[in-house]
């Protein structure tokens, strides 16, 4: 156990180093000598003595606090390294640009992406502003995409909307389902049809709604799946090949938060390496939700894309 007096002992050890003791001695001698020195040298000798004494007393104190701060920083960095944390972003709002750059880098290397959130309206908005790599990965039919969204008809969605006091939570989810993902589906299907004339001809000859076998073929070729879950959101996840981005969800609302504001995007986002133990737990959480606590709406969204196209 570290004694309560240990910081004072450390400060004493720093202050008693020979160089600081010498500065203290020179300072004291200079101040005494100034009392015996006549003008015009009296002021200069006093100034030299005061400077030496200031260095001898204040520098150890400054060094003490600097070493403590560096030690705390190194401890935090070491803990992050051991936990497999690659980066910590203050929040999706405060560090938006830095987070986009990190997501870009993760997306470039990924042939599979799994997303878990509430609405993802900004990400799937076809008219929104996106960085190049995530948008390209969302539209690329070679990238297997899984998306978990909060069910807009669920009690969990209503609870979240109530806490957010007028925010468009439920409307945002419906927008993603009615417009964002169908637009992405159309782009993926367009790219597939550029390489597959047979599928393109089959689509051209089919009436709306498409037959089940055609819908199944489109889902398989476009390599995307969408599920809805009805539990209170626990975590925001973006899972790439080499990285997992996670933000803890909550139902807390500080009093100072503006009415109608989203309660997400305010707490830190942590980027884990895919080999980190935490990343394994988070990925397993995703699979648990995907396989047993959600329902598949992919085929309905393909039909929505067909109708919109």
Describe the structure.
This protein has twelve helices and eight strands. By secondary structure, it is of the alpha+beta class. The chain is elongated, with a radius of gyration of 31 Å. The protein folds into two domains: 6-82, no CATH class; 85-308, Endonuclease, Chain A (2-Layer Sandwich). The longest helix has 43 residues, at 41-83. It has helices spanning 6-15, 18-36, 41-83, 96-108, 121-124, 132-139, 155-164, 169-195, 197-205, 212-222, 277-292, 298-308, and strands spanning 85-89, 112-116, 144-150, 224-229, 235-239, 243-248, 269-273, 294-296. It starts with 5 loop residues before the first helix and ends with a helix.
Proportion in helices:
55-70%
Number of helices: 12
The number of distinct β-strands equals 8
Instruction: Provide the CATH architecture of the largest domain.
Output: 2-Layer Sandwich
- Amino- and carboxy-terminal Cα gap: 70 Å
> Quick one: overall form?
elongated
Write a brief structural summary.
This protein is an alpha+beta fold. The protein has helices at residues 6-15, 18-36, 41-83, 96-108, 121-124, 132-139, 155-164, 169-195, 197-205, 212-222, 277-292, 298-308, and strands spanning 85-89, 112-116, 144-150, 224-229, 235-239, 243-248, 269-273, 294-296.
Essential attributes:
2 domains; 8 strands; 14% strand; alpha+beta
Itemize the secondary structure elements and their pairings:
Layout: H1 6-15, H2 18-36, H3 41-83, E1 85-89, H4 96-108, E2 112-116, H5 121-124, H6 132-139, E3 144-150, H7 155-164, H8 169-195, H9 197-205, H10 212-222, E4 224-229, E5 235-239, E6 243-248, E7 269-273, H11 277-292, E8 294-296, H12 298-308
Parallel strand pairs: 2-3, 3-4
Antiparallel strand pairs: 1-7, 2-5, 4-8, 5-6, 6-7
Helix pairs in contact: 1-3, 2-3, 4-6, 8-9, 8-12, 10-12
């Amino acid at each position: 156990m570290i004694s309560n007096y240990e910081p004072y002992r450390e400060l004493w050890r720093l202050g008693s180093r020979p160089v600081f003791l010498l500065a203290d001695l020179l300072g004291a001698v200079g101040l005494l000598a100034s009392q015996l020195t006549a003008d015009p040298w009296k002021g200069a000798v006093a100034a030299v003595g005061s400077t030496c004494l200031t260095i001898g007393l204040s520098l150890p104190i400054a060094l003490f606090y600097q070493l403590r701060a560096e030690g705390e920083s190194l401890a935090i960095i070491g803990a992050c390294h051991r936990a497999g944390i690659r980066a910590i972003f203050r929040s999706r709002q405060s560090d938006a640009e830095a987070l986009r750059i990190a997501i870009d880098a993760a997306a470039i290397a990924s042939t599979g992406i799994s997303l878990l959130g509430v609405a993802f309206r900004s990400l799937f908005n076809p008219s929104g502003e996106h960085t190049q790599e995530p948008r390209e990965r969302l539209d690329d039919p070679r990238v297997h995409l899984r998306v978990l969204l909060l069910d807009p008809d669920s009690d969990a969605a209503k609870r979240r909307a109530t806490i957010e006091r007028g925010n468009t939570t439920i409307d945002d989810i419906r927008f993603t389902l009615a417009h964002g993902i169908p637009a992405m589906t159309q782009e993926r299907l367009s790219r597939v049809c550029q390489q597959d004339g047979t599928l393109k001809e089959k689509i051209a000859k089919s009436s709306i709604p498409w037959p089940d076998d055609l819908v199944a073929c489109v889902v398989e070729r476009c390599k995307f799946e969408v599920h809805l879950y009805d539990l209170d959101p626990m975590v925001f996840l973006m899972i790439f090949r080499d990285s997992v981005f996670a933000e803890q969800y909550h139902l807390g609302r500080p009093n100072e938060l503006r009415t109608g504001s989203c309660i997400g995007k305010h707490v830190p986002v942590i980027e884990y390496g895919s080999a980190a133990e935490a990343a394994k737990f988070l990925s397993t959480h995703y699979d648990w939700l995907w396989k047993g606590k959600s329902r598949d709406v992919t085929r309905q969204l393909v039909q929505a894309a067909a109708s919109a196209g």
